[in-house]
Every structure is written in C-alpha cells, then in structure tokens.
Amino acid sequence: MSVSVSGRCNIPDDIGSTFAMAVEEQNATTREISMNISQAAANVRDVNDNRNQMPAVTAKASQDIVQVNEAALT
C-alpha cells in the first residue's frame, strides 16, 4: 500500500481550515447572542421606566376624572 507524502500534508490543512471555520461560526453565534442580550436588557429598562411612570400617570388620570365629575355637577 502506497501513500503519497503530499496526500498526508493536506490533512492538517483541512483540519486547520475546518477548525478555523468552526471558530468563526462560534464567534458569530456569540456576537449574535451578545446583541440579543443587550437588546433584551434595553427592553427591560424600558419596561422599568414605564412602570416607574405609572404612579404619576395614574394620579393625573384620577385628577382629570375628579375635574370631569366636578364640571358635570356644576
């Protein structure tokens, strides 16, 4: 059985190329996960900001209702 030296030399190159592609795919996936986590964190901040504004909005709505009721009685 005869194996050429050039055939053996291509194997490490193929493994290296496959490994490099796998690492790049992992990097791309990690970047995408990171972006998704950042977006989720921004959305949570928005929800918290809106939640924190609710007491003031509710108080204003209550005042408006009182004014409408008073106007209706006069």
Quick take:
The chain is mainly alpha-helical and 74 residues long. The chain contains one helix and no strands. The chain has one domain.
The average pLDDT value, as a whole number, equals 88
Return residue spans where pLDDT drops below 50 for at least 5 consecutive residues. none
N-to-C series of helices and strands: H
The radius of gyration computed from the alpha-carbon positions, rounded to a whole number of angstroms, is 32 Å
Distance between the termini: 109 Å
Q: How many domains?
A: 1
Number of helices: 1
Percent in helix? over 70%
Strand content: under 5%
> What does the oligomeric state look like here?
single chain
- Global structural class: mainly alpha
Main β sheet profile = none
| Beta strand count | 0
Task: Tell me, briefly, the overall form.
Answer: rod-shaped
Secondary-structure blueprint:
Layout: H1 5-73
Question: What this model shows, in words?
Answer:
With about 70 residues, this protein is mainly alpha-helical. The chain has one domain. About 95% of the residues lie in helices and about 0% in strands. It has one helix and no strands. It has one helix at about 5-74. The longest helix has about 70 residues, at about 5-74.
